[in-house]
Design brief:
The complex is a heterodimer of chains A (about 110) and B (about 800). Chain A is an all-alpha fold. Chain A is built from four helices and no strands. Chain B is an alpha+beta fold and about 800 residues long. Among the domains of chain B are: about 35 residues; about 130 residues, Aminohydrolase, alpha-helical knob region (Penicillin amidase (Acylase) alpha subunit, N-terminal domain), CATH 1.10.1400. Classes of the chains: A mainly alpha (about 110), B alpha+beta (about 800).
């Protein structure tokens, strides 16, 4: 829980001050490599923290002025409504973060003694 | 085991990263695009906020900008440099992606963005010499200190905006297509002008005409595509006396006969097959049009002249135009401009108003070239071999190899399509023919805009027009002193009558252009007796005009309707003029319908009966809610198809049909004409025979397309007007609009061409104006101002335009003010 919160906050700050999307892969990878107790935990932490971050922030933007553009992008992608955009966004971040978190743990495991 | 797990999980993670960081076909790079902090989510209405102050590097003094509720900027600068710089900055802040995309398109650089998909179009634009033309025009602009200042300062403004733009605030199209803006330049301003020049002055059917002449003979072609068409009411009132002594016209080489060599006997390229010239599906569509007129104070209620203009162009979002006011010492202009070019293009100032319709003259000819051999290194001129020149065009392709194309040039111009090459889609280009196009010649149209923006009177207007060469325009004028005028203005090659209607022989120098019509001899009229001037892309003059300017003009209906209304007009108000821009009376239907209906036998089928009832009760208005316009349009098309498509084994099928005035004339005056005979049957048919067939065919087609007779046939739905996104990105346009009007009525809203800016200006002591365009000020699809004017535009309900005297003038319509400052 605390890991999720820390990952989320670190990603939030990095995403605000830079335009790069891949912090949602780097930070979970770093967590997996540096602190995760198991592969499953690394995956879960990545998925939940990045997913929550993109879910919450995209929701925030939709509610503060991005409603029109979200509707248009949904139509561009052939979706019947705007709200799936929020879910897709959260899922993409979550999946990317989960795999990179696991990869981080897998690399760490190479150097870990039994 | 551990190693395998680590390697596999790293590989999977890398694959996910790669997949989300890159575009796949038309799918945007998902990671970048969906990132809430920098992806499309950032392109919301927050971008509509107007800051109180902005730092714009390069400004010499403060520039003050007021904004109205439709997001229109009113720019007040202390000098010209700052004015243009601020215009560039603001245009970019509203429309950066559109500005750049239009220019890259014309430059033949779309493949850099979309990959191999854009290659064919890029190759066409390179071969057509668009970049070559822009480079030449730029040097002309740079030679003139005034236009040089305008272009350099404007470009600096655009670049100031680009430099201050982070990745997060990039227009959403860059994010969808995954690329970034490059620096703006004078060449880009010039390319934008050439984009319009191509749209307005490159239409031609020379190749198709040549095929038709070869199939039908010149007499028939002249009857169907007459140089002096019936019913047309020309721009300049018939009988207007010319105040000049005409130059003698050149003639074709007498030894080779008229149009010598247009089918070069034994030349390297012969064009015997119709398919060489005009493959089916490559017919251009002559839809470009516009209306303008000015009414003298004699005819208006308040005694002030009123000028009106609606320019018909392709419907796109972001809109073609944006509105603005430009003010600095010596200039105070209000109207619309193209994103990407300095100054106001169409509009008014405190003293005068001006507007455009396309001249639609022929300034493009094809010359069949006889090459010595396959290398095309030499070609025949006057019995001697002359060297061709080569311009290398390098087309970069995203995700592919750069394509190098060596374009062959003769003294006439580029060879656009080589023998044996596939045709270019949508254009009719003869093989192994050199292109002579006025759009390639350097000229300085920005100087004209500069002059018009600053003009105080008729003399200033006249002086401004001298620099406008291409695309030729009917430039309408009215001023506060009461003068109204129109000049059919451009640079015209001096030619014999009909020269260049067909592909010309390139080996005979007598076929080349032999000089120019003197500027003062251009068709024009000032303060005519009838109290109004007008144009609607129809032929400019009656037969007494001594020069030949072209023959592919718009059909007669819009021009005739405008003149019909204005001829009877008294006590005219601006409201009358706004209504007139929305006039949808179909002159064609009014002329022929009762005659045609008389030929239709009483139908038995229900749909035919009810369709006939609709036509009988119709008031000839092309209203969205009516069914009659749908039926008439289909009926008219089928009547034309039955009349023309059987001529000479289908040679005609490849051409545009003769203009509607020719058909209307046949229906009214020659119902027994041989053209109505169905050549595929042994008997002889007349109009009476084929009218019934055409009607039945039309109704059955409509049933197939729109279901049983009923509201589903209404004109608005059947026409299906749409405003597509400029790059055809789904979801970013407006579809399914139900619009009144049609291409040949005054309110010329067709499927995707329409009045792009409706303007009415009353030149009283205080100039008052109304305007609206099909879109909005912002180019951001996520903005409130992207398409907010569409509904008012559809309803022909223009807004009264604000015209400020000073930056600080209080006005209830002004909602925000921004001060732009240079860097300390």
């Amino acid at each position: 829980m605390i890991a999720v919160l820390i990952c989320l906050l670190v990603m939030l700050v990095l995403q605000i001050i830079t335009p790069y999307w891949w912090w949602v892969m780097i930070v979970p990878f770093a967590y997996g490599m540096g602190a995760a107790k198991s592969g499953a935990k690394a995956m879960r932490t990545g998925f939940v923290s990045a997913g929550l971050l993109w879910l919450g922030s995209s929701l925030y933007f939709v509610l503060t002025g991005s409603g029109i553009i979200t509707g248009r992008v949904a139509r561009m992608l052939g979706l019947p409504a705007s709200w799936p955009m929020v879910l897709i966004t959260a899922l993409i971040a979550g999946i990317a973060a989960a795999f990179s978190g696991y990869a981080g743990y897998a690399v760490r495991a190479l150097f870990k003694k039994k | 085991m551990k190693w395998i797990r680590a390697i596999v999980s790293l590989l999977v993670t890398a694959a996910i990263f790669w997949g989300l960081d890159n575009r796949h076909g038309t799918v945007p790079p998902a990671g970048k695009f969906l990132n809430p902090f920098a992806g499309f989510w950032q392109n919301g209405t927050r971008g509509d906020a107007l800051p109180a102050s902005l730092v714009v590097p390069g400004l010499q003094a403060e520039v003050r900008v007021a904004w109205d509720g439709r997001h229109v900027p009113y720019i007040f600068a202390e000098n010209d440099h700052d004015l243009y710089l601020a215009q560039g900055y603001i245009a970019a802040s509203l429309r950066l992606w559109q500005m750049e995309f239009q220019v890259l398109y014309t430059a033949g650089r779309i493949s850099e963005i979309v990959g191999p998909l854009g290659l064919r179009q890029d190759l066409f634009n390179r071969r057509f010499g668009m970049l070559w033309a822009a480079e030449k025009a730029l040097s002309k602009f740079m030679d003139n200190p005034k236009t040089r200042l305008a272009i350099e300062a404007y470009s600096a403004g655009v670049n100031a905006y680009i430099q201050g733009l982070g990745k997060k605030a990039l227009p959403v199209e860059y994010k969808i297509l995954d690329y970034a803006p490059e620096p703006w330049s004078g060449l880009k301003c010039t390319l934008l002008l050439k984009t319009m020049t191509y749209t307005l002055a490159a239409f031609n059917q020379d190749a198709a005409m040549t095929v038709m002449r070869d199939a039908l003979g010149e007499t028939v072609v002249d009857a169907l595509f007459p140089l002096e068409p019936p019913l047309v009411d020309p721009v300049i009132p018939p009988g207007t006396a010319w105040d000049f002594k005409p130059l003698p016209l050149p003639g074709p080489n007498p030894q080779k006969g008229r149009e010598a060599g247009s089918r070069p006997a034994g030349a390297g390229s012969t064009h015997d097959e119709a398919a060489d010239f005009a493959p089916i599906g490559t017919r251009p569509s002559p839809e470009v049009g516009s209306n303008n007129w000015a009414v003298s104070g004699k005819l208006t209620r308040d005694g002030y002249p009123i000028l009106c203009n609606d320019m018909h162009l392709g419907l796109t979002l972001p809109a073609i135009w944006y509105e603005l006011q430009l003010s600095a010492p010596g200039i105070n202009a209000r109207g619309v401009s193209f994103p990407g070019a300095p100054l106001v293009v169409a509009g008014y100032n405190e003293n005068i108003a001006w507007g455009f319709t396309n001249g639609t003259d022929d300034v493009l000819d094809w010359y069949a070239v006889r090459f010595k051999d396959e290398s095309r290194g030499e070609y025949l001129v006057n019995g001697e071999w002359r060297k061709t020149s080569v311009r290398e065009e390098r087309i970069k392709v995203r995700g592919g190899k750069t394509v190098v194309d060596k374009v062959i040039y003769t003294h006439q111009g580029p060879v656009v399509r080589l023998k044996g090459e596939a045709p270019f889609p949508g254009v009719d280009v003869p093989e192994d023919a050199a292109l002579r196009w006025l759009g390639h010649d350097p000229s300085n149209e920005f100087m004209t805009l500069d002059g018009l923006n600053r003009a105080k009177n008729y003399d200033d207007y006249l002086k401004a027009l001298e620099s406008w060469d291409c695309p030729a325009q009917n430039i309408v004028y009215a001023d506060r002193e009461g003068t109204i005028a129109i000049w059919h203005n451009g640079k015209y090659p001096l030619r014999w009558k009909g020269q260049g209607r067909y592909v010309l022989g390139g080996s005979d120098p007598a076929n080349d252009w032999q000089g120019w019509v003197p500027r003062a001899h251009n068709p024009h009229v000032r303060n005519p007796e009838r109290g109004f001037v007008s144009s609607a892309n129809q032929m400019a003059t009656d037969a007494r005009y001594p020069y030949y300017l072209g023959s592919d003009y718009a059909s007669y209906e819009r021009g005739a309707r405008i003149n019909e209304i204005l001829s009877g007009a008294r006590g005219v108000t601006p409201e009358d003029m706004i209504r007139m821009q929305g006039d949808v009376l179909d002159m064609r239907a009014r002329a022929v319908l009762s005659r045609l209906l008389a030929f239709i036998p009483e139908p038995k089928a229900e749909a035919e009966k009810r369709s006939l009832d609709e036509l009988r009760g119709w008031n000839f208005e092309a209203r969205a809610a009516f069914i009659a316009p749908t039926v008439f349009k289909q009926f008219w098309n089928d009547l034309n198809a039955l009349t023309w498509n059987d001529e000479k084994k289908g040679a005609m099928e490849r051409m545009t049909w003769p203009a509607s005035e020719v058909m209307v004339d046949l229906v009214l005056n020659h119902p027994d004409s041989d053209f109505f005979d169905d050549k595929t049957t042994p008997g002889k048919e007349t109009l009476a025979d084929i009218a019934g067939d055409a009607f039945r065919t039309a109704v059955s087609k409509l049933e197939k397309r729109w279901g049983p007779f009923g509201p589903g046939w209404r004109w608005g739905k059947a026409k299906g007007t749409r405003i597509s996104h400029l790059a055809r990105i789904p979801g970013l346009g407006r579809e399914g609009l139900e619009a009144d009007g049609d291409g040949h009525v005054i309110d010329a809203i067709s499927v995707n061409w329409a009045p792009s800016w409706r303007m009415v200006v009353e030149l009283g002591p205080e100039v008052k104006a109304w305007g609206i365009f099909p879109g909005g000020q912002s180019g951001n699809p996520g903005s409130r101002y992207y398409d907010d004017m569409v509904d008012a535009w559809l309803a022909t309900k223009p807004d009264e335009l604000i015209f400020l005297k000073s930056a600080g003038e209080p006005n209830p319509g002004i909602v925000a003010r921004t001060t732009l400052r240079g860097e300390k």
